[in-house]
Design a protein that fits this description.
5-stranded antiparallel β-sheet; 8 helices; alpha+beta; homotetramer
Chain lengths: 362, 362, 362, 362
């Protein structure tokens, strides 16, 4: 058991605080002889990096990753490959500005983990959220880049599908659009709308929530496991472990509560490559095991609680007061959660791929 | 790692199939010297037992539990108490009627785990769903009864808050009402409505989904853990591992995506017993750690796929065909998920209580 | 984490006390479609069963195993096979005679776990040693019988190689002899000697220690894992977890401390089937990974502390006193540890077989 | 599960190869508010550091540790303290000289993990043993320094008690002597003898094995757990996971096989502070749980296989050949295993301290 690890055969342990020396992770259990360079990882990190538009925190972090272990040059292929040993990845913290936080050292920000960390540990790292900072998710993205290497033919993509009350139009879903706007939004029109909408939020010093959807294509039928090792149970845990996430759905999700058995169950037919389904309310998972359809998960991100408007709170000594959080924050922290959701999906699937191979082979 | 276990310090391993000899569980890590009898467990099992109204499957199972190990008479107190050793609980299967299932032996029921188990293991236990049967949840309820013994002063209750499109009126929430209707519904009027509504569903041979809400009172601030050991991540996994669950929420859940930072963050004040909050959008959890407010989780249950109306499917040999599932099924399997949700919440909290005590003492 | 489980992909959880209702285990992670009947398991249990000669405890236990879950008839093969679901095994306790133990209820037997269980839990199950009884090892043997099914072509055998000061002559090692004497001794002459020697011990009401050696043939090179997942580290833990074991060796073991680098390192040559070694000081394991040679482990069993001669001790209230343990005990508990050692070796290797397949395939 | 982690509540994950960028570890689960500086850790690392006498490898590594996370200045105490978050420790590799190893790139050194890593992974890091290098143990020592902080009043010390055939005289055991000679030997006379003896070994280009003994004082009765969570099972695994270890003993160890029940069982009396024992054959552990006596473990280290004398081997292509290992090696690698054994004992006890507190409280 470890509070800072997840996965079983593909196991990730992360470390580091927002304003410490470095953040990073150790990825254990990776199969050997997979080509892996820092550039492979950097590509994903760059998608999550803050400061890329006015819609994310202006903290300037290069987020440059170093591979400390677990790879070597393979004389045969001339490539750098994994060795089967633990892959340690480190990202040094550069733009820390601890002074920004001195005012709130003894105050609990409502909606933040300030109070609960203090209640648990008797102290808290007030500098930028410490371990509870969204910065920890960079380590997840780095691990996810390794996970992607493991599964041949699998693609994991995510998109922002709702911001505040504005949901995308699913008929206008275009994966190519995701890379073209600062919101990872697959609906071009909604992306335009979000630009105005979020500027309004930002200028008010407020923040707003969002919903992210992740889709994995190329997962064969049979991965996952019954009961407590369910693929969807592991996805639920993985997504809920992301900062600020308050809900997780698989396939039809909460809508399934409103459906009849006839509406919900995905009928089956034979296609060219075997079994096909006439719909995907299951989100690619039945009984905790993949069906061969795309695996679809969704999660809700709450609005960040670091806002410029004063809120009632208490301090460490139990005195009632008000707080305004200055710092440099994301008006919609859900945006940067998109690559994080992808990474978590990739890690969970890599783990289940290896677990399936362990128990059932092939 | 174990596909049939959950929890760390309070660890539950379940076994058994719908139509096998017995189902049961081993509860490991229970503190010693807690009074525990079979009657304590039976009480919870009786709430989940099928056949108690026309709204649940007519399978007749006494679900009588035996404690095989882990308890002894304490000479001091004259009570039967836990010893700290693993508590094995067994429930023999009585009313199995395997013949009901012979027709579907080679068919995959749409929306069921039939196809995925077969894809994974190369065979499936077609008798009553085998391991994928809702019957497995009896073992969870038994384990939950043990978990409840561990935490002094904690109450875990659940209720059905939505059936199909009909949500309860939260202003009419009455916990006492939950025991008075066959739906575990806290809203008397909606319970009356559900009676007619579900009769209609049942008579049509159809089924419908539901939403369950679980509330734990008496959880102090400080339980849970950061990052991957988050209380909400463990709850998400625990709830999603229940058969037919497709979505999980904590506190405001998906609604949080629509809220502003001002609306969502629960403001703090000082009360008689320390910190209080002016709302509970957080569902009692911030940063993965309990706030001292009620812990609130919610999950969506899909409609059972065992319905009387014909559905298109394929058989094990890849032939397209139709299927009608006769058997004895629940028109709204979400009803019996209510005590199961309670049990999972109790188990997760018991585990985190012990984990917190391990790392931080007190 | 679980105090009553071991293994990762092949995971065994045991339960039950000497004088409770039943003992047993849940074996999780077993691959599907392996032929498995109760008779397969009974065969191994019968080798461990007490009361088979005057050299083991006279407790009369049929030790009849029931498979509660995880198997079904396979229509194709007409055999009962594993399904991939957890296999629960139960052995009811029959010959309990709890009254034998009433005298020692408040006394701590020197060399027993009486005092430490009480120190830990604030109570202890004084009936026959409770959970600390050698009876728990029956569950291990049952799990081991399942483990043996998993690895094609592997043989795991064990023998008693030393009793008190009398070690066998390794030049006279004959595996066939092991089944012919009540000591599992591979040296016919020493077996004859042990008969007299142990009769003397038994008649004096004393007891004696022993050394057991386990050999696994047919383990290919490449199983196991570096560092903390070493095959030998897992074997050490598995063997040390057997009651009364005080030392574990792999290959040359403690003798390796006296060897030079030239003497110890096993030189390598090419044989018909690939790499061969000119000796096996490594015991088939280098760097925690199997070499393809026989895997050889050895463990020392202390003499049982239940003896007829009075020993100085204290009672639960802290009063100094003397104790004589009557009961029905093994003069050399090491004898019955032979099939237990085999079972533990089989379980560890099954686990590593699956773990290797998970990470590296093939 | 993780091949590069150990412990449960106090959990250590190590990474890094002999000739990679850095080695290090992540220590998860450490209680908060313990004073901890890099200097605390450096002290232990310096005891293990190579190149301190002519009896250890001449590789020159400063082994300077950096704390990357998990600590902060505590305003109250003015000290740097743990926060409860994962503590990442990094030691950069400085003196790597990869060229030394180019000759053996395609050869398997007998007695090394070269062949088995290659058999498992299809490649191996030939530079200085890669992950299988003794260098990995620096990370253990660093983790052990953190572990020592957790348990108030506990002392863990180790000594070299045998080199080749020369065992120390236990009547001459002097803990103060351990720091005065380059062998960590508690017997002054034997230390003098070792000096000559090992010079002889070294000059011949040979190597020799050793036995290390670790003693933990100040462990109260009641730590550890029954069955597979036994304190001695975890110690056995921890010690056997150290490179080159081939045997582990607790208390009387293999000698217990030769003892009678009367001789072996430690009699009990009442002392000033409660129960005392008249001997410690148990090594402070009964039934897997601590007795309150010193916890005593011992392990045998084989001679390093990197020797200057030619040995028969094969290469990666299956050609028979001879090998001479030049490099810079330890003539008795057991010497540097002394602080490593201490560290492993400290980590296992810290873990069990927290586990005990979790299940049974204070």
């Amino acid at each position: 058991m470890s509070h800072n690890s997840f996965g079983h055969l593909f196991r990730v342990t992360t470390f580091g605080e927002s304003h410490g020396v470095a953040i990073g992770c150790v990825v254990d259990g990776c199969p050997p002889r997979l080509a892996l360079t820092a550039a492979d990882i950097q590509r994903d990190l760059d998608r999550r990096r803050p400061g890329q538009s006015r819609f994310t925190t202006q903290r300037r972090e290069p987020d440059e990753v170093r591979i400390l272990s677990g790879v070597m040059m393979d004389d045969g292929s001339g490539e750098q490959v994994t060795t089967g040993s633990p892959i340690a990845l480190m990202i040094e913290n550069v733009d820390q500005r601890s002074k920004d936080y001195s005012e709130i050292r003894d105050l609990y920000r409502p909606g933040h983990a300030d109070y609960t960390y203090d209640a648990k540990y008797g102290l808290r790292d007030y500098r930028g959220g410490g371990r509870a900072s969204a910065r920890e998710t960079a380590a997840r993205v780095a691990a996810g880049a390794v996970a992607r290497k493991i599964i041949p033919g699998m693609t994991v993509r995510a998109a922002l599908v709702q911001m505040g009350p504005h949901a995308i139009d699913r008929d206008r879903w275009d994966w190519d659009e995701v890379a073209r706007n600062p919101f990872f939004c697959p609906d071009k029109d909604k992306a335009a709308l979000f630009e105005d909408y979020l500027d309004g939020i930002r200028k008010k010093g407020s923040s707003i929530g969002a919903v992210i959807e992740i889709v994995a294509d190329g997962v064969p039928a049979g991965w996952g496991a019954p009961i407590y090792g369910k693929l969807d149970a592991d996805l639920a845990s993985a997504m809920m472990s992301i900062n600020a996430v308050k809900g997780v759905e698989i396939g039809a999700g909460f809508l399934a509560a409103e459906l009849s058995g006839e509406e919900n169950a995905d009928e089956m037919r034979m296609g060219n490559k075997g079994v096909t389904f006439l719909s995907n309310h299951a989100g690619g998972i039945l009984g905790g095991i993949s069906t061969g359809q795309p695996v679809v998960a969704r999660f809700a991100v709450k609005p960040t609680s670091s806002i410029l408007n004063p809120r009632r709170t208490v301090d460490r000594k139990g005195k009632e007061t008000e707080i305004v959080t200055k710092g440099r924050h994301d008006p919609c922290v859900g945006i940067r959660a998109v690559p994080v959701g992808e990474a978590m999906m990739a890690c969970v699937l890599a783990d289940h791929f290896l677990r399936h191979r362990g128990q059932v082979s092939g």
